[in-house]
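Lab meeting minutes (informal)
Scribe: AK
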Amino acid sequence: MTQKIKVAVSGACGKMGQAVINAVLQENDLELVSAIDVMNVGQQTGGVTIEESLEKALLSKQIDVIIDFTNPELVFKHTKLILEKGARPVIGTTGLTESQIEELKKLSQEKGFGCLIAPNFALGAVLMMMFAQQASKYLSNAEIIEFHHNKKKDAPSGTAIKTAQLMTQERAKFSQDNCLEIETIQGSRGGVTESNIHIHSVRLPGFVAHQEVIFGAPGQALTIRHDSFDRISFMPGVILSIRHIMKNNDFVYGLENIL
């Protein structure tokens, strides 16, 4: 009998954490062995007791993979700790800087453990990013609008940042033919990447995770949009990521690299 992959969830009491726990419990080759959160410590979820300390969980239990959906202030510290203690991180928390990602890549390679960081685990969202990258070869004017719930702390979203990075791989500069712009209200044109892609972040109750990339050209426009209406949309990507890093000791940034 094949040994099950022992999985822990950090941020277990959040909406994403609960969705991940339910998804893990449905897979025959996965076993939930730990749930970590500062909320509801001592209570049961998914058949395990919620514990407060990630470090204690790593020291006291045999854990193969830890899935982290916490917050931008903790994610870098958590990922380093997971790798240093000999487990494999699957990171869905956004807010990591480019320098932090590079440092985690180096640590993953030094330790010889797989590490996967994904700004978005929805397969449709990953396809949206890939399609936007392809369109960037042919259309030179583009902007990104992302919509999330009003409890999301970081802006722009990791998905928007990753999308812009992929688009920039195909075109170094966008919208070079725009006129000189004057903002009468600061920030009206959104954030601007080094490649001159404007990113607009919307935060409203009722949304989950949504993004559209709009390309404009004389006489036409192309809109590539993805909508996640329920967190269940992220679960196939999470499960795929767990299995990938158990078989491969590589560092992966972006789910498109393992599809």
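Next up, CB showed the second protein from the same session:
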Amino acid sequence: MSNVKLLVVDDHPMLRGGVVSLFNERDNMEVIAEAKNGHEAISSIEKQRPDVVLMDINIDGKLDVATTEQIKQRWPQIKVVAFSMHEEAQVIKRMLKAGASGYLLKNAHHNELVRAVEAVTRGESYYSQEVLDVMTHSITSDEENPALNVVLSYREKEVLHFVAKEFTNQEIADKINISLRTVETHKRNLIKKLRVKNVVGLVKFALEQGPLLDLH
């Protein structure tokens, strides 16, 4: 299997250098370019085609979501992992809407950075536990989203809540004292109700629609 090619975007040279060293020490990953802002990132991608962009979304003191939007519009096959100090639900949701496949806070352990890149390379999404917690408890008033009109039972909300936290079916069953088969039934019903394709779709929906997971 060929190396995963990365572009690291961060306006702090010391932090950027640490991230570059982390990935270049691995046998199956290689940082092929660095950038200190969105303009340099786009220029680097035009010249070299990374598999994954590790994106600091706070550049020169300003929030930069537009670069991720541009990357995903022009090169949809490239995965973007946001790496940021921002833990506000609104910012996280804007990055997910822009097309980011992952989101971590800058206090993440270096092993988690590696896991995130490995996950998005496999076509999965990756969100740190802090990000999951923020999104699970966020409140939105997006009345234009028809999914918010879907009525979920308390039990379905419970199942969706623990799906978002990456519990296995058996763990969910044990946690809320129902059978494994009942958990599976609830997940099938949720997939149908929320019009998503699979469990990954449920997780993404749960991240974007915090109020549906309010169990109080």
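CB comment: The domain at 146-213 is CATH 1.10.10.10 (Arc Repressor Mutant, subunit A).
No objections, moving on.
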